[in-house]
Amino acid sequence: MCAKAARGGEGTSPSKYGKELLAGFYRTMTTIRHFEQTVEKCFLEGEIPGFVHLYIGEEAVAAGVMANLRDSDYIQSTHRGHGHAIAKGADLKRMMAEIFGKSTGSCKGKGGSMHIADFGVGMLGANGVVGGGFTIATGAALAHKMQGTDGVAVAFFGDGASNRGTFHEAANMAAAWGLPVIFVCENNKWASTTPYRTTTSVDHIADRAAGYGMPGVVVDGNDVFAVYEGARSLVERARRGEGPALLECKTYRIKGHFVGDPEKYRTKEEVRKVFEETDPIPRFESAVVKARALTRKELDAIDGEAREAVRLALEFARTSPEPEESALFEGLYV
Ligand SMILES: Cc1ncc(C[n+]2csc(CCOP(=O)(O)OP(=O)(O)O)c2C)c(N)n1
Ligand 1 centre and the CA of 233: distance in Å? Predict the structure, then answer.
């Protein structure tokens, strides 16, 4: 009989946090939202090559987890990775340029949306291989342990990715070696066209933690306070050398799996209803205004700054040069 995942972080009042932290949550979430809306528009207008997967509706997960991390902590992201990179402090201009395939991009325009990295802030990379990040983050956690730091590594992953063998291999090794890695599942109810229940045997992904002897915690992933508190206790315990943990954030993918997805597997009505009821941004706004922790005016000022930062990133991407043909084979391993 396995232990069930614990519930964490519910019912937290905003008034217990300082203004700086609250403003940081909002800045991160609104920057992600504006960034993603801009990317969606530019993609649909044919300005962006390749493929993009949007993080709209899941902003509270990145904001809540990353508020517990330092630049020297590592994260490994997914194909839906813009939000993780923004929350970890990656440069918005270089991100946007990368998505536009420009030479000023974080990978010189050669990677695109699914290969954004920014080592300077511990963002080890997005990953087009579903489930490709578990072992990378576990390796980064091993590096922290071998170097004797109190740093941690976080592997973000979707509910679909948790069914890959790499999850189970990494979870077992991390637990057996007591590594400071937090596996953060963004359970957005869908893996591409597949609903959660048709491919997954457990009620909660976090229930699987028990199989590896690590804590498994479930939080409301659309409540930034719940995510922050849930991640905080697991990050602190990893910093103390008490090993890995699994945090499952229940959320919902509001946009199609990729931009252009015809979404034949669900109704517009379902999506509209969930978004209206759970959108993490208005939820945060009404909680902080009600608690008089931030004013509407303060929120508007932060939102305006986020919009402007995204506008500047877009301008930078649009006006940056394409990579030179001569650079095609630079930076490759042979
Ligand atoms: C190894 C591998 N298998 C399949 C795919 C195709 N694929 C891309 S995203 C995706 C679904 C991933 O679902 P989930 O892990 O729940 O993340 P979400 O897209 O919901 O954020 C699939 C099957 C892939 N990129 N890599």
Answer: 29
